[in-house]
Write a structure and sequence with these properties.
Belongs to the NAD-dependent glycerol-3-phosphate dehydrogenase family. One of its GO terms (molecular function) is glycerol-3-phosphate dehydrogenase (NAD+) activity. One of its GO terms (cellular component) is cytosol. Its EC number is 1.1.1.8. It holds the Pfam family NAD_Gly3P_dh_N. This protein has 371 residues and is of the alpha/beta class. 52% of the residues lie in helices and 15% in strands. The chain has 17 helices and 12 strands. An 8-stranded mixed β-sheet has the order 5-2-1-6-7-10-11-12, sandwiched between helices. Strands 3-4 form a two-stranded antiparallel ribbon. It has a two-stranded antiparallel sheet with strand order 8-9. Helix 9 packs parallel to helix 13. The relative contact order is 0.10. The structure holds nicotinamide-adenine-dinucleotide.
Length: 371
């Protein structure tokens, strides 16, 4: 009896000790600090203060640049504003800008990837030696890579290089509007439900509402492919076509997105995911607002190249649509499928092969959807 009592007391003491011991929160590192990276830093910086699941200091890796003779990281850490990529918005003071990638990811258990997709391979190689067990990632990057068997998603690149679980977040989210706290929705794709919920806690706000779905590959593919459609929408604007034409581009683009996903995604491809924010909603917003549409409109109106216009119009921001069209075109060529995707193919040929912009409409007129 006495022994039983002693054991009970010991268990009780242990329970009390455990309840008073606070587990340290998970350290977050945001890998990237452009227009979207800075908007997301604003949200994460605020959210971690309200939750004991996360470390209250958020690291943000910044690709160092000089702005009027001052380092961008120094400006962010003293003025709490990314004056180049998100001017006019204060970042929370607990978001710390760090110029060395290896320093920024040290001790981080959650990595948020938000850089233009052309830089991901090199950064992962730099990060790899600093990954510790149990680290998870989420990619906000819109784009695709090209692997030996065809399609390679950016989350696949991160997964393979870092050997961590990776979820994705994509949606109708023009960064400046999210930073302005204008209401919108977004989609997290996560095959691991528990991780999906951690990311939801880290990112949801009253004006940034999140749905978590399992079809992570489809969510990510939508985010990449819609940028190609947006370039087509910009061509139509530049050529002086109206809203009916834009609606047709959006619909035909969506049909090609679904067909592409059915051909190239390994898992299930349900139509429902295309109805989430990452699907039709993102497609609409990108075809009306967004940089891909804007630059494509200027391309149709001037004789300047995409590279020239990107440099002239975007102040260091990167275009995703033309490059994604090139990656998709290579994949289609390999599988002898170019003729089944005339909209995707025309965007590539106009951006890179000298096809005339007005030919874009000819491609739509002969689309297999109407045959
Ligand atoms: N901006 C948006 O509205 C938006 C919304 C949703 C998703 N996204 C996606 O988020 C990702 C990041 O976009 P963004 O808008 O934050 O970036 P951005 O285009 O605004 O900025 C470019 C970023 O690239 C960095 N950079 C430049 N040269 C580099 C190099 N050599 N190596 C590494 N980094 C370099 C710059 O410092 C800057 O942070 C993209 O995949 C984009 O499609 C953007």
């Amino acid at each position: 009896m006495r022994k039983l009592l002693q054991t009970t007391i010991c268990s009780f003491r242990r329970a009390v000790a455990l309840s008073t011991f606070k587990m340290p929160g998970k350290k977050i590192c945001i890998v990237g600090s452009g227009n979207w990276g800075s908007s997301i830093a604003k949200i994460i910086g605020h959210n971690v203060k309200a939750s004991n699941r996360f470390d209250p200091i958020v690291n943000m890796w910044v690709y160092e640049e000089m702005i009027d003779g001052k380092k961008l990281t120094e400006i962010i850490n003293t003025e709490h504003e990314n004056v180049k990529y998100l001017p006019g918005h204060k970042l929370p003071r607990n978001v710390v800008a760090i110029p060395e990638i290896t320093e920024s990811v040290k001790g981080a258990k959650i990595l948020v990837f938000v850089i233009p997709h052309q830089f991901i391979n090199k950064l992962c190689d730099q990060i790899k030696p600093h990954i510790t067990e149990g680290t998870i990632g989420i990619s906000l990057i819109k784009g695709i890579d090209e692997g030996p068997e065809g399609l390679k998603l950016i989350s696949d690149v991160i997964r393979e290089k870092l050997e961590i679980e990776v979820s994705v977040l994509m949606g109708a989210n023009i960064a400046s509007e999210v930073a302005d706290e204008k209401f919108c929705e977004t989609t997290i794709g996560s095959t691991n439900e528990a991780n999906g919920l951690i990311f939801k806690e880290m990112l949801q706000t009253p004006n940034f509402r999140i749905t978590v779905v399992q079809e992570s590959d489809i969510v990510e593919l939508c985010g990449a492919l819609k940028n190609i459609v947006a370039v087509g929408a910009g061509f139509c604007d530049g050529l002086g076509f109206g809203d009916n034409t834009k609606a047709a581009v959006i619909r035909l683009g969506l049909m090609e997105m679904v067909a592409f996903a059915r051909l190239f995604c390994k898992g299930q491809v349900s139509s429902g995911t295309f109805l989430e924010s990452c699907g039709v909603a993102d497609l609409i917003t990108t075809c009306y607002g967004g940089r891909n549409r804007k630059v494509a409109e200027a391309f149709a109106k001037t004789s300047k190249s995409i590279v020239e216009l990107e440099a002239e119009m975007l102040n260091g921001q990167k275009l995703q649509g033309p490059q994604t069209s090139a990656e998709v075109y290579k994949i289609l060529q390999k599988r002898d499928m170019v003729s089944k995707f005339p909209l995707f193919a025309a965007v590539y040929q106009i951006c890179f092969e000298g096809k005339e912009v007005k030919e874009f409409i000819t491609c739509l007129q002969n689309h297999p959807e109407h045959m």
